[in-house]
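[job 4471] stage=fold_predict status=RUNNING
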Amino acid sequence: MHGPASPGWLLVALCAATGAYCLLRMRSRVEEQRRAAGGEALMGFGMAAMAVPATVFTPPSWAWPGYAVVFGAAALHALWAARADAHHLHHLVGTSAMVYMAVAMAASPGHHHGTGGSGLPLVTGALLLYFAGYVLLSGARLLPAGAGTTTGRWGDRPELARACRLSMGIGMVAMLLTL
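[job 4471] inference complete, writing structure tokens
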């Protein structure tokens, strides 16, 4: 799933920073922020781990099934949470995409990253369309939110949460493109 080293490291940095900010959001006084932040932190750190360039670290053969199990459990949690809040449907798609990428990498010969052709073109294309649309929609939602909406606490700033979701969507598009 990994391409050249420089873009890979940029993706690692983006996803890790997003995961770190989501951990900070878990301390928010706003319940809505706390509720979504844990799953988003898991996604951010999981995406960062999966994006480490293969020239630096090739995961052991058990890592890909491990990713599939962790994100499969997160997908079940998102499915359960979607009963009360439709936002969790996006988490369900995201965690399912992570399971799909982990399974595709585990099934690829030799577990090589960035070689292309690891996944099913129809599923990969559908996920690319979904996340590209999500990125465009998230970017449009971010624009009007930035004017005068600061609260002073980093964990309670909805515009930063939207920016994190946007960056994770961009990261997901980049990861799917290299699958």
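[job 4471] summary: The CA atoms of residues 104 and 119 lie 5 Å apart.
[job 4471] exit 0
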